[in-house]
Design goal:
single chain; 12 strands; 5-stranded antiparallel sheet; 3 helices; alpha+beta
Length: 176
């Protein structure tokens, strides 16, 4: 009888432990959520933005990345994280970037109270801007919204979750 209760618990804990990833930032490695591909409908190149959140000593860290054809562009300016309760967390740009030839990557800092809110309330969308000098055949610049959806299309008959469970993944960063 006890074995029936213990085996599912062990499977759940091991699944969460193996699903956890890391983010390297300023020479340190932090435990992070899995990378989520949020739908970004108005970004024509890929239609998605990658979002990942890490736990730090003083709160948390948002890693926001998007594919590009122009590595001189940057995700810059304030980022607005809209939660399911219609509140917004404003992340100010501290100029933390790690662009590659194909990816624009920016980091934004969360305070401890903001991380506590993220542990309780689902992320609904993230509003950000891409800035740079636009030329022929380069990626888009401007303002974009990454929505917490797994895909563009779904049917009413599909019972699978249509969005990422951000609260559970963020809660899993703190051990019991």
């Amino acid at each position: 009888m006890n074995l029936r209760k213990i085996v599912p618990l062990i499977l759940l804990v091991s699944t969460v432990a193996f699903a956890q990833q890391n983010i390297s930032f300023k020479g340190k490695t932090y435990p992070a959520t899995p990378q989520w591909d949020f739908v970004c409908e108005n970004y024509a190149l890929t239609g998605s933005a990658q979002v990942q959140i890490a736990k730090t000593e003083k709160g948390g860290l948002l890693q926001l990345s998007i594919t590009t054809t122009e590595p001189t562009f940057a995700i810059s300016g304030n980022v607005y994280v809209e939660l399911a309760d219609m509140s917004v967390i404003v992340c100010t740009d501290k100029n933390f970037r790690a662009n590659t030839t194909t990816q624009l990557v920016s980091y934004y800092v969360f305070s401890t109270p903001e991380m506590n809110r993220l542990k309780k309330i689902e992320i609904r969308s993230i509003r950000f801007s891409i800035q740079g000098k636009k030329q022929k055949f380069t990626s888009q610049t401007g303002y974009f919204t990454a929505i917490n959806k797994k895909s563009y299309f779904s049917t009413i008959y599909n019972s699978a979750p249509k969005s990422f469970d951000t609260t559970s993944a963020i809660q899993a960063l703190w051990p019991l």
